[in-house]
Design a protein that fits this description.
2 domains; 4-stranded antiparallel beta sheet; mainly beta
Length: 217
C-alpha cells in the first residue's frame, strides 16, 4: 500500500475519492503503528512503543558529528558512531544526548550479574542477570563468565564487587577484577571473561555474593 499524494483528487467523483482517502487513512494507521500506538485504545493512544533511528551522519561517516540544538530546544537525543577512529573499524552505534553544555554518550549496560556462592568448582547460583549465560567457579575466587550475546569488542569496562563469605574483618572491603594474562583477549573478550574476587591485599577469596556490571565496548 502506498500514499496517494493527490487526495482528494479533483478530477474524480466523491465516491472515487472515498477510496483514495480511506487508503491514505489505512496507510497512516499501518505506518504509525510500527512504533506508535495509533487507534488502539484510550490508554495506549498517543504513546510511543519504542524509538528507532539511524546513526547521525551529517558529514563523513568516518568523522561523525552531532546535531545542534534548535532555538527553544533544551535536549537532543540521537545515535551515532562513537568516534572517528572507531568508525573506521566498524564500531557499533551508540546513543547520545546533547544539551546546551555538553554532548554525553549513554553508555548502555552490556551485561550484568549477581550470583551467590555455591561450594566447589561448579556453576554458581545466578540470582539476577542480563546477557549472561553462566558463571562457573574455576578455583578459589576465580570465575568464568559466559555472555549470552557476544559484545562488539574486547574494549569494555567492568565494575564489580561482593560480600565476604566469612564474618571476620568486617571493614575489609571486597573487590572484583579481571584475571591477568599475556593478552587481553585471553581473559576478557567478546564471549566472556575471567572474573576475580578477593581482598584489597590481593588474596583471592570466595564471596557469599558477588556482582559485576559491563559497560561500553
Amino acid at each position: 500500500m502506498s500514499w496517494n499524494t493527490d487526495a482528494p483528487d479533483g478530477t474524480k467523483s466523491v465516491k472515487a475519492n472515498n477510496d483514495i482517502l480511506q487508503a491514505n487513512t489505512t496507510y497512516t494507521e499501518t505506518e504509525m503503528n510500527k512504533d506508535h500506538f495509533w487507534n488502539i485504545g484510550a490508554d495506549e493512544d498517543g504513546h510511543h512503543k519504542f524509538a528507532q533511528m539511524p546513526k547521525y551522519t551529517d558529514g563523513a561517516v568516518a568523522t561523525p558529528t552531532s546535531p545542534t540544538l534548535d532555538t527553544g530546544m533544551d535536549l537532543a537525543f540521537f545515535s551515532r558512531l562513537k568516534t572517528a577512529v572507531e568508525a573506521t573499524v566498524a564500531q557499533d552505534v551508540q546513543a547520545y544526548v546533547r544539551n546546551a553544555g555538553a554532548i554525553m554518550q549513554l553508555l548502555g549496560i552490556r551485561a550484568c550479574c549477581v550470583f551467590n556462592n555455591v561450594a566447589g568448582n561448579v556453576a554458581q547460583s545466578i540470582v539476577y542477570k542480563h546477557n549472561i549465560t553462566s558463571v562457573t567457579r574455576q578455583t578459589t575466587g576465580r570465575y568464568s563468565v559466559v555472555y549470552a550475546d557476544a559484545l562488539p569488542t574486547d574494549n569494555y569496562l567492568i565494575f564489580g564487587g561482593g560480600m565476604k563469605e566469612t564474618a571476620n574483618d568486617v571493614f575489609e572491603m571486597f573487590i572484583g577484577g579481571i584475571s591477568s594474562g599475556a593478552a587481553v583477549a585471553a581473559r576478557k573478550n567478546t564471549l566472556g571473561m575471567i572474573f576475580l574476587t578477593g581482598t584489597p591485599a590481593g588474596v583471592l577469596t570466595n564471596a557469599l555474593q558477588s556482582w559485576f556490571v559491563v559497560f561500553g565496548g
